[in-house]
């Protein structure tokens, strides 16, 4: 062993130990290796810094922007709503849909972001179906991990392996080259989870952590840092009993502006939202304005703010007069409302000019863009908000309106009355962080995603150029702004990858990759190429359980290519095996951020991951060893 190789292996051992101990953070480990490798003299500083210009790093950064654009436009959240609508109360259907959705979404955006988006959906689905969240959150994490096996951009590890092949003058992988292997793993994992869910059962106890839960019903008492939710306010102010849905038939009111309907706050009525079709399958919620024209099939959400029975009778009278069909709000109305309309609790300041005036007399909605739908004198919510009831100092108002107006309450750009101290924001809802600020631009986000995929699949441009074109479309269409794009970059991940990439060059230059290949060949002496694939898969999977799957791919991709050269075989099956194995972090809760996210809300223990994850890992190995050589011959 040469002195240079000893130095590289020593640094590699130190990095691995720090990864296992998680001290310091992984990105700091990458920075330390970025500094140590040039100082060792094995590679130059220019070569060490080359990781920042590596196409894999640039492409991963672009994918962070694409994923943020999908989140900001609500594309991912709408898929969650579709899951809720399609799943019903069948637990098996819930599990299957959750896993498939996580795998498909994670194939084109960060799997960690996918899990963060779908945890509230899973909790809501669990409550609606009357099942334990523990039975849904583990399948969610499994599906998100399998997303790395579904497409080239499913995980940074795939891009690292692809980049290593390009660096060696090989063709690399296509966008869907991973899909034939990911699909059988996903189908097998779904079938296994339908059985393994019973392994997660145990006597219920209070969860170790609590994820966000927008489902209707009173929230558990939150900690001091936990913002309230719309569900809690709906319960506190009794909203559900004061709401009606008015449907616009084909032959009534259609084409008329809202200003002509006569639905006025002075009569104890507040029009909160209009839900209408947005394409063949989707619907959107829009904030009502006087000039908004009604379309056939529109649904008007009306709140009765006056005394209960009288106000509801007033709604029915107007519905009859206008030829509209009245009905109570359907199940899930709160989630639908939150897509376009927000709520907040505000306090009437002691020196406010609103004191002594009713919301109607003060032209509250005109001035602030918000409607008063609930009122508290002291701690007790009032049964109604009488149209002419004057406001008093210290009154707490529950207001509803466009999310942009709710956001304005929290910042210096708020309405003039808020800036003057007339209104004091008391509580902003938890859902505020999840609302898509660029929702109307969702079609552009889908167009950007489709353009990127088409360019990658057809090869009309390079993969990096395709991802950057997708980012350009996102930016030019307003799906994401420049500041949002910079904030979307996960600098820890980028630093880790850029810092560890030089190891591949150092191992190759010092003979480390050849030494590892010799060791693997000796271990599987006489077992042939498939036996070598099995050992390579097991080694990659084992390392990915204790360190970043990206770092694992960086270290083992050159070893896989060296193995192929020693065996005189095609490098593609060996490289694909490393990429697939890097996405099998099923067996420990610390193997991936995806697993860490569900531990608290699901109240999982370490052995839960072992019991559920071990069979799925073996399934993935069987697929890799059995099918990879068939589609990618030796």
From TrEMBL:
Main location: membrane
Pfam families: CitMHS (PF03600), TrkA_C (PF02080)
Pro residues biased stretches: 213-227
GO BP term, pick one: potassium ion transport
Subcellular location: Membrane
Ranges that cross the membrane: 27-45, 95-123, 135-153, 173-195, 494-515, 535-561, 573-592, 612-632
Record keywords, A-Z: Membrane, Repeat, Transmembrane, Transmembrane helix, Transport
GO molecular function terms attached to this record: monoatomic cation transmembrane transporter activity
Membrane topology: Multi-pass membrane protein
InterPro entries on file: Cit_transptr-like_dom (IPR004680), DASS-Related_Transporters (IPR051679), Na/sul_symport_CS (IPR031312), RCK_C (IPR006037), RCK_C_sf (IPR036721)
Region (Disordered): 205-230
Top-rank taxon, per record: Bacteria
RCK C-terminal domain residues: 231-318, 331-415
Cellular component per GO, a single term: plasma membrane
UniProt protein name: TrkA-C domain-containing protein
């Amino acid at each position: 062993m040469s002195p240079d190789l000893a130095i590289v292996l020593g640094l590699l051992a130190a990095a691995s130990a720090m990864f296992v101990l998680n001290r310091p953070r992984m990105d700091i480990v990458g920075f330390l290796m970025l500094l140590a490798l040039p100082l060792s003299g094995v590679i130059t500083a220019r070569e060490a810094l080359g990781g920042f210009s590596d196409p894999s790093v640039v492409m991963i950064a672009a994918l962070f922007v694409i994923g943020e654009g999908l989140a900001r436009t609500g594309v991912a959240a709408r898929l969650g709503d579709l899951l809720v609508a399609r799943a019903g109360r069948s637990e098996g259907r819930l599990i299957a849909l959750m896993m498939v959705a996580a795998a498909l979404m994670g194939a084109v955006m960060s799997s960690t972001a996918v899990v963060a988006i779908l945890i509230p959906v899973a909790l809501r689905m669990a409550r609606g179906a009357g099942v334990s969240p523990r039975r849904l959150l583990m399948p969610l994490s499994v599906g998100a991990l399998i997303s790395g096996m579904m497409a080239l951009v499913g995980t940074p590890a795939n891009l690292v392996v692809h980049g290593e092949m390009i660096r060696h003058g090989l063709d690399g992988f296509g966008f869907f080259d991973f899909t034939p292997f990911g699909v059988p793993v996903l189908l097998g994992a779904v079938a296994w989870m339908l059985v393994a869910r019973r392994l997660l059962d145990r006597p219920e106890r209070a969860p170790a952590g609590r994820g966000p839960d927008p489902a209707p019903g009173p929230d558990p008492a939150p900690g001091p840092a936990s913002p309230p939710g719309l569900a809690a306010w709906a319960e506190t102010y009794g909203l559900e009993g004061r709401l009606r849905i008015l449907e616009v038939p084909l032959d009534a009111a259609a084409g008329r502006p809202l200003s002509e309907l006569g639905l006025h706050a002075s009569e104890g009525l507040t029009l909160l939202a209009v839900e209408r079709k947005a394409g063949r399958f989707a619907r959107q919620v829009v904030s009502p304005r006087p000039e908004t024209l009604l379309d056939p099939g529109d649904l008007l959400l009306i709140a009765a703010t006056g005394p209960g029975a009288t106000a509801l009778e007033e709604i029915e009278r107007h519905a009859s007069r206008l030829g509209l069909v009245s009905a109570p709000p359907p199940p899930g109305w709160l989630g639908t409302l939150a897509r376009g309309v927000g709520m907040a609790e505000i306090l009437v300041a002691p020196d406010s000019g609103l004191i002594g005036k009713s919301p109607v007399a003060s032209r509250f909605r005109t001035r602030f863009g918000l409607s008063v739908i609930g009122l508290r004198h002291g701690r007790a919510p009032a049964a109604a908000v009488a149209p002419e009831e004057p406001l008093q100092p210290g009154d707490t108002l529950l207001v509803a309106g466009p999310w942009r107006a709710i956001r304005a309450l929290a910042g210096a750009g708020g309405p003039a009355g808020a800036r003057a101290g007339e209104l004091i924001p008391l509580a902003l809802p938890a859902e505020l962080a999840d609302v898509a600020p660029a929702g109307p631009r969702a079609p552009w986000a889908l167009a950007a995603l489709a353009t990127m995929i088409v360019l990658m699949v057809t090869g009309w441009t390079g993969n990096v150029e395709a991802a950057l074109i997708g980012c350009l479309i996102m930016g030019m269409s307003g799906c994401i702004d420049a500041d949002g794009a910079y904030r979307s970059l996960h600098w820890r991940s980028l630093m880790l990858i850029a810092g560890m990439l030089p190891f591949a060059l150092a191992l190759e230059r010092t003979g480390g990759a050849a030494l590892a290949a010799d060791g693997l060949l000796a271990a599987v002496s006489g077992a042939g190429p498939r036996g070598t694939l099995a050992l390579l898969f097991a080694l990659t999977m084992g390392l990915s359980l204790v360190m970043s799957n990206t770092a694992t791919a960086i270290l083992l991709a050159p070893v896989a290519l060296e193995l192929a050269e020693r065996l005189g075989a095609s490098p593609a099956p060996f490289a694909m095996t490393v990429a697939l194995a890097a996405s099998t972090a099923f067996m420990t809760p610390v193997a991936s951020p995806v697993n860490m996210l569900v531990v608290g809300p699901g109240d999982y223990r370490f052995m839960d991951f072992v019991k559920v994850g071990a069979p799925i890992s073996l399934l993935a190995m069987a697929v890799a060893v059995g099918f990879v050589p068939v589609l990618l011959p030796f």
